[in-house]
Amino acid sequence: MRSKTVDLNCGSGNDSTTPVELFRNHFPMFTSLSTPQRGELRRGRNSKSCIIRSPLSVLTYRKDGVCLSILGRCFESFRLVVLMLTFTLLTDDLEFATGDEPKRLTHSSRLKFSPFFRDNGNEVVFVELTDPSLYRIQKLVISDGKCTHLHPDATTSEFEPIGSPDGESYAYLKTQGVLSVGIATRDRQGRDIGWIAPESGLFGFRSPTLAPGSTQIAFAFPEKRTQQIVTSKLNGTERLFLTNSVGLNNWPNYSPDGKSIAFGSSRDGNFEIYVMDSDGNNVRRLTNHPFQDIRPRFSPDGKRIAFTSHRDGNAETYVMNSDGSQLVRITSHVERDDYPEWHPDGRQLITVSEREGNFDLYLWSVPSSKAE
Q1: Comparing 216 with 74, which gets the higher pLDDT?
Q2: What domains, with CATH codes, occur in the chain?
């Protein structure tokens, strides 16, 4: 798509300072602007951001895109023109979710990671920093808000729990010492059904994901200054490298039918979302943006993928079709909305969201795809 440029010619005005919060109150989905160039409003070729500057006004923003302001005598006179032009130029390719406010599910405000639903969406399993030195896997019962330790006897930190597509098992990373991490798998009753012992070296397993049927597991593993996606049996045998690229490959996620794996990779310079057949063939790139797209998750029907993107200056949650089309932004906040995971009904997502420096679980509505 060609870049569009609009010159801003403004008359005299008496305003010396007008905050851009007015802009963001009208259009809260816009939280990041590119480096300004003189005298133009422009949408770049591969960017959803905009540039605003005129001879009498200067746009400034913090490096992370959180705080924006416009200083200038003439902002008031062309304020509405800028808003209308910006809305038109920035939204012809990107959709924004509209609907109910998210539902807050937890209130501890402690650091959290990696939520997933189980028991038909009645429970949420996630990681929480329960004290300064221990990360524990927690179980939240949504109906009464009660939160308990999933593994009461755990004495070392546990990370990255993930349920199987059929809900019959779950896997997670279990530490056995400093820099010693293995992959444990349990059935829904909590019985051990698999263990992959820690490897030697400074780096170990990351991001386990279970195939339907819970007999195969995929994970990220360091290999000769890279990180690749690997599959094996639940005990670590029959190991097979699915990727063999430069950079880092991470966050594999099986489709519900087990035929595809979505993952993130930095092979092309920064993290983008890719999908491949479950045997490692037919790799397709789904996103293309200068900022990171990470942590993909297939929807329960396999037709859509949720992921975290930093294209807005901070972590936000997006959804797209499994072929990369129909990109929809779900969250919009100056703080993080990360670790998206689908509800079993396919119409909601859970995230770890930061609000005023506190971290809790929030439940978001997801608009239907146009194809539905």
Answers
A1: 216
A2: 4-93 (no CATH), 103-365 (2.120.10.30)
